[in-house]
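Page 42, continued from yesterday. The earlier attempt failed because a stray header line got pasted into the input along with the sequence. Redoing it now with the clean sequence only.
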Amino acid sequence: MSRTPGTTAQDFVPFATAALDFHRALNIPGGPLITTRAELDALHAHLVSLHGLLDAHAARTGQLMPAEAEQLRAARTRIWQAAEHLHTAYHAAPRPDSGEVPEPEACRTGLPEGAPELSVCQRHQRTAHLVRRRTTPADLHTPFTGLVRR
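This time it went through. C-alpha cells are written below.
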C-alpha cells in the first residue's frame, strides 16, 4: 500500500478493525476457551494504542470543538478502564508454564513476574502516568458515560 499525499491516518483504522475481526474469526473457536496471557497482553497493547489515538484526537479537537472533544475524552477514559480490566485479567489468567492461577493478592502486592510478562505492567504503568495527568479521579470512577438522553 503506497502513501500518497491525500492519504490520512483515518484510512488505516478500518484495517485495524478488520484485523481484529479476522483474528477473532480464526482464533476464537466456539465453546469454552481460556484466554491466554499472550492474547490478553496483545489486547492490552491494542487498547493502550487506541487510548493514545483518542488522546491525540481529544487534544487537537478541544480547541476547535469543545463538545466533540469532551465526548472523545469520555471515550478515552472508557478505553483506559477497559485496559485496566485487561491488565487485571492478565494477572488472573493461568501461567503458561505451570497452568497455575495466581492468587488475587499476588497482583496487589506488586511483585513482578519477570520478563517478558513484566512488559504488560510496564506498558500499563507508562499509560497510567499519562492518565493521571489528563484525567480526574472522578472521571475514572464515575459510571456516567457522558451520554445524555434528549
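Notes: The mean pLDDT is 81.
Reminder to self: strip header lines before submitting.
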